[in-house]
Amino acid sequence: MKRRVRNHYRMAFVFMVAVGAAIVDYSSGANAQAARAGAVKKDGLQAVYATAVEIAEGKRIAQASCVRCHGLDGISTVKGVPHLAGQRPAYLYLELRAYQSGARGKKVMDGAAEFLSDDALVKVAAYYASLDPAQPVAASGAKPVPAKPGPVQAGKADAAACAGCHGEGGISKTPGMPNLVALDPKYLVAAMKGYKSGQRKHDVMQSLLAAVSDADMNNLALYYALQKPARAQTPVTGDQAAGKAAAAACAGCHGKQGVSTNPDIPSLAGQDAQYLATALQAYKDGSRGDESMKGLAAALDDRVMKDMAAFYAAQPPQPPNVRRPLTTAEWAKKCDRCHGVNGNSVAPFLPALASQRVDYLEKVLRDYRARVRKSSAMAAMSDALTEADVENLAAYYARQKARAVVFVPVPGK
Fold first, then answer.
1. 44 and 128 share a domain?
2. Where is the Cytochrome c domain (predicted)?
């Protein structure tokens, strides 16, 4: 792989297959020419071109300024502090400059990078880049971090407690029990919160949801939204044709065939007929508090309610417009586009993630998501990450084998 740099040199990036230090194959003539051209000044590539003498000087600087947190071998034993060994040299240099300027916050690195010269930053970056990378979590003897279930998996596990009443996959087989499939997550979460708070009157549901967190409700709702829609497998009484005529007034909110396009309003297609009729009666008598529904239901008698329920129960439900979240493996493929296969970056400016500390990776992802660390690309990526995604991605990269890289300056044409 070749990339042209501003001094008209190209660098070939080669993975070291055998265990060894990340060293720089260096030509003094090439470095002198680059320095004279001034093409690599303060862009981090000086660290790529560092000589053995400069790397040794970087070790001396690291002993005085960096070892307390990062260790002389670049393997951190401090929570939240990254390993530096084998990290990409230009990236290390640029990060040190960011800390020095205050762009990354100065408190953490006060007394370390703040008073170092630019030449010292180059040398210490080159030194740590030259070291053997950390071993992955599984190989280092550290306890592996178990992957947390994704939201759909977590929702499926929690839904086991709901299946007795609402059916497998949210398809009811019990008259009076609503289908949970084909409902938008936003509506279903609001309904669960209504039962939990007592706004919706149902003692059993209030008791069952009392200990359920908002995150668990979100997972449940997402799981049901992603299941294949089907009509409730319960008996239907009532005149569907009469119900269709009566339901014309409901189409504006619930859709012509009972398929809502508003995430706040439930779809009625395929819903259990007895549940629908009971819900209408609850709106009519005020036991469900919704003024708009109370006004609409006030003029309906029991016969009309059953007919409308029969009509909606017969309609084919449709899946809501909900995207399945990415798995950890799918997220890692996206991350690997910049950070290299299994987190082994081949670019001097982009950090390697393989074998990095789990707690540090988690912190960085959260900081990008909160805009504490500034990067438009990382902000866009991290915005879509759930907390489980953050923890699983960090654990994934911590388990990957880190590979040192040789950066070789090659004369350009």
1. yes
2. 53-132, 150-228, 238-401
Is 60 exceeded by the pLDDT of residue 39? no
**Can you tell me the distance from the alpha carbon of 14 to that of 376, in angstroms, rounded to the nearest whole number?**
29
Global pTM value: 0.73
Residue 117, in any domain of the structure: yes
Of 329, 367, 389, the C-alpha closest to 82 is 367
Q: Which of 313, 334, 353 is the last residue of a domain?
A: 313
Domain region containing 35: 2-145+345-366+400-411
Give the pLDDT confidence of 127-161 residue by residue, as tens digits: 999 999 999 976 665 666 677 788 999 999 999 99
Give the other-Cβ count within 10 Å of 214's Cβ: 11
Q: Does 290 lie in the same domain as 178?
A: yes
What's the Cα-to-Cα distance from 339 to each of 62, 261, 347, rounded to whole Å?
26, 40, 8
Classify residue 276 as exposed, middle or buried by CB count within 10 Å of its CB (0-12, 13-18, 19+). buried
Question: Residue by residue, what is the 3-state secondary structure of 38-83?
Answer: CCCCCCCHHHHCCCHHHHHHHHHHHHHHCHHHHCCCCCCCCCCCCC
Q: Hey, CA dihedral for 354, 360, 362, 368, is it positive or negative?
A: negative
> pLDDT tens digits, residue range 167-197?
999 999 999 999 999 999 999 999 999 999 9
Amino acid residing at 361? L
Structure-block tokens of residue 158: 């929690």
DSSP code, position 24:
B
CA atoms in the 13 A half-sphere facing the CB of 21: 14
Neighbours of 52 (CB within 10 A): 12
Closest by CA to 131, choosing from 50, 29, 13, is 50
Same domain, 183 and 247: yes
Write the DSSP assignment of 327-357 as a string of letters.
PHHHHHHHHHHHH-GGG---STTS---TT--
Task: Using the structure block, give the residue that is written with the tokens 């990254």.
Answer: 82
Is 190 inside any structural domain?
yes
Tell me the pLDDT tens digit for each residue of 4-17: 333 333 333 333 33
Domain for residue 179, yes or no?
Answer: yes
**Pair 89, 50: CB distance under 8 Å:** yes
Rounded to 5°, angle at Cα 76 from 54 and 149: 135
Residue 15 CA from chain centroid, whole number: 29
Dihedrals φ, ψ of 288, to 5°?
Answer: -110, 125
336 φψ region: left (φ > 0), alpha (ψ -120 to 50), beta (else): alpha
Q: Which amino acid is at 206?
A: Q
